[in-house]
Amino acid sequence: MSVRPPARTGDPVSAVDTPALVIDLDAFERNLDAMAAYAKAAGVRLRPHAKTHKSVDVALAQAARGAVGQCCQKVSEAEVLVDGGIGDVLVSNEVVGESKVRRLAELAARATVSVCADDVEEVRAYVAAAKGAGATISVLVEIDAGAGRCGVAAGEPAAVLARQIMDEDGLSFGGLQAYHGGAQHLRTPAERASAIASAAERVRKTLDAFDKAGISCPLVTGAGTGTFNEEACSGLWGELQAGSYCFMDADYARNQPAEGSNLPRFEHALLIATTVMSVAVPQQCVIDAGHKTAAIDSGLPVVWRGDGLTYAAANDEHGVVTLKAGATRQPSLGSRVWLVPGHIDPTVNLHYWYVGVRGGLDDGVVEAVWPVSARGCVF
């Protein structure tokens, strides 16, 4: 099925059909440049996470700025990235299921593909698939860095699993996956620093166990948009997996920066263009963007440059925007309201297209229309 894009290159931004995901290309490129410069100065590798953008075009833009590859969460995402020209992909997740593991091994026969493990049964499945495909799969041991989700216990259990990987034909030991997802949205700098300090202790404990077992660890990888500086400054992590920095959402914007920090401040570069479809009720308007346009697991979208406007409620295809007393802006029927998604990743997965606008969202022009290449790739 071919889905019509909401705009064509050369259109004025006012002609973009709604609701639509719109990338402010100027802000987007500033975000990419800022993170690339940070990673280079810190002496760490950057492997952005494609679960945020699900886009070959975005991944290629990051590669052009020095990214060593991409992370993703699912084999189907990895397949799309490799088919699109990304030659080095880490599935930063455990892969379970005969079909999925077979596809992973087949992908590893034509690109550099890594995956995580936290159980010996996963390792055995990877071995069988690698032999069947005539491939070598790089396997990282994932430890529980503090989120209590996936990951073997730090220390000796991780070393035992690493040794099992090293002893198998068809596998290579890729290092340590240590990502603390729960730390990314802790609001204060002190909370984030404390969480990553705890994660660092688990990494050190594991590296000590590796040393005692005679295991050389080639890489510790992890980190996210909320804590990348903490991992980079630890001296332990050699690779950053931040994803959301390229677009930034409303929830990440709630994180408080450290006082006097000179870290990059990433801009909202991905917005949702919407149209006012009703002004029948006083002190509110209704826009054409509801649950099927924006994920709300991290809160409702935020009206960009709101001027007294609040996205107050959502239905399937309707969004209710209320006007505060004294609001300086009174949206009229057919006028444009811009939203910042609460959570980028699941919002992106609802859409087929990105519309890239150059020159700002008031008077800019559509420069690019990109497919959301890995939309629906959850298997």
List the helices and strands and how they pair.
Layout: E1 20-24, H1 25-42, E2 45-46, H2 50-53, H3 56-63, E3 70-72, H4 75-83, E4 88-94, H5 98-108, E5 112-117, H6 120-133, E6 137-142, H7 156-166, E7 171-177, H8 189-212, E8 220-222, H9 228-234, E9 239-240, E10 270-278, E11 284-287, E12 302-303, E13 309-314, E14 319-323, E15 336-340, H10 344-348, E16 353-358, E17 365-371
Q: Describe the largest sheet.
A: 9 strands, mixed
Fraction of residues in helices?
A: 25-40%
First CA to last CA: what distance? 20 Å
Round the mean pLDDT to the nearest integer and report it. 97
Count the E strands.
Answer: 17
Low-confidence residue ranges:
none
The level 1 CATH classification of the largest domain is: Alpha Beta
Total domains, how many? 2
Question: What count of helical segments does DSSP give?
Answer: 10
The CATH topology of the largest domain, please?
TIM Barrel
Q: Element order, helices and strands?
A: EHEHHEHEHEHEHEHEHEEEEEEEHEE
Radius of gyration: 22 Å
The CATH architecture of the largest domain would be: Alpha-Beta Barrel
> Which band does the percent of strand residues land in?
15-25%
Fourth CATH level, the homologous superfamily of the largest domain: Alanine racemase
Q: What characteristic shape results from the CA principal axes?
A: globular
Structural class: alpha/beta
Identify the notable features of this structure and list them briefly.
globular, alpha/beta, 9-stranded mixed beta sheet, 2 domains, Lyase, Ornithine Decarboxylase, Chain A, domain 1, 379 residues, TIM Barrel, 10 helices, 8-stranded parallel beta sheet
